[in-house]
């Protein structure tokens, strides 16, 4: 018995899939590169805004537009970066950027309105152990012995390495392999 088949794609039913033409592989690779570049522009713009923590609500639509463009390119049969690699890479970058902003606020701008909302409000609500004795000393922010030095070291090394690792992951580089 032949069961009816359904076109599960959204949009027009006559959506054409990229087929090899006279140009062949070169045209396909050029179209794939253009589609990847276009999606990355939207994804990078969204990631930059989301990474600031305060402008994240404006960055989310840009990020989702980039995801949609990448998904559309995959559906059209173009050779673009896998969606899982893209999401993991950009989310590593976003997480490192948000951590950098938060820790930089704690190091330098701990008495600003933004820090009082993001750090004190979060600390009072969720992280009571961190909030205890916060902003009590002259240096401001977290005042545990050696904690400021650790924060500066983390901002300058660990978070920048995480951003570099996210970029390398997006480029699909093999850094830790021998040969």
UniProtKB/TrEMBL annotation:
Transmembrane segment boundaries = 42-64, 84-106, 113-132, 152-170
Tell me the domain of life: Bacteria
Which keywords does this chain's UniProt record carry? Membrane, Transmembrane, Transmembrane helix
Name-wise, this protein is Uncharacterized protein
**Region (Disordered), start-end ranges:** 1-22
Please indicate if the UniProt record lists Membrane as a keyword.
yes
Q: Which organism is it from?
A: Mycolicibacterium fortuitum (Mycobacterium fortuitum)
């Amino acid at each position: 018995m032949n069961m009816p088949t359904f076109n599960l794609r959204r949009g027009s039913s006559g959506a054409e899939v990229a087929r090899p033409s006279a140009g062949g592989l070169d045209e396909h690779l050029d179209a794939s590169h253009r589609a990847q570049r276009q999606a990355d522009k939207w994804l990078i713009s969204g990631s930059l805004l989301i990474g600031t923590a305060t402008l994240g609500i404006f960055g989310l639509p840009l990020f989702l537009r980039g995801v949609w463009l990448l998904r559309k390119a995959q559906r059209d049969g173009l050779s673009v970066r896998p969606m899982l690699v893209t999401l993991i890479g950009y989310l590593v970058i976003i997480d490192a950027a948000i951590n950098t902003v938060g820790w930089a606020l704690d190091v330098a701008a701990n008495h600003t309105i933004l820090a009082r909302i993001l750090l004190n409000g979060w600390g009072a609500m969720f992280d009571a152990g961190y909030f205890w004795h916060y902003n009590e000393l002259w240096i401001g922010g977290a005042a545990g012995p050696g904690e400021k030095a650790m924060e500066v070291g983390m901002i300058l090394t660990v978070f920048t390495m995480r951003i570099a690792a996210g970029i390398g992951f997006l480029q699909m580089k093999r850094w830790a392999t021998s040969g």
